[in-house]
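Appendix B. Raw example, untouched.
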Amino acid sequence: MQIKKSDADGVTTLQIAGEIDLHASPQLRAELRQCIQSKTPVLLLDFTAVDYIDSSGLATLIEYVRESSAFKGKFGLFGLQKKVRTIFDLVRLNELFVISDSAGEAVAALSAK
């Protein structure tokens, strides 16, 4: 898994490529912890190049949402491939996370919250 971080217009985006599994989750967790420490106001995860996520990856995302709520951090995902989106829908995480097709849609949805 690879992660590229960018910041623009008050929004931090983590572009993730590869599989988010038991072996990659610690790397993602470390990156998300940095966002928690810096109290990132709006964080988007670009899942365009993610082709798999397992329960450890999902737990890492849930942990971020829980910990970022202390500083009212906003969090969204975009660009999920159909098979990855199905996993989020099956475990009903689409009710916890803002999931959009594009970064613009995700920012708009988070602004409406």
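End of appendix B.
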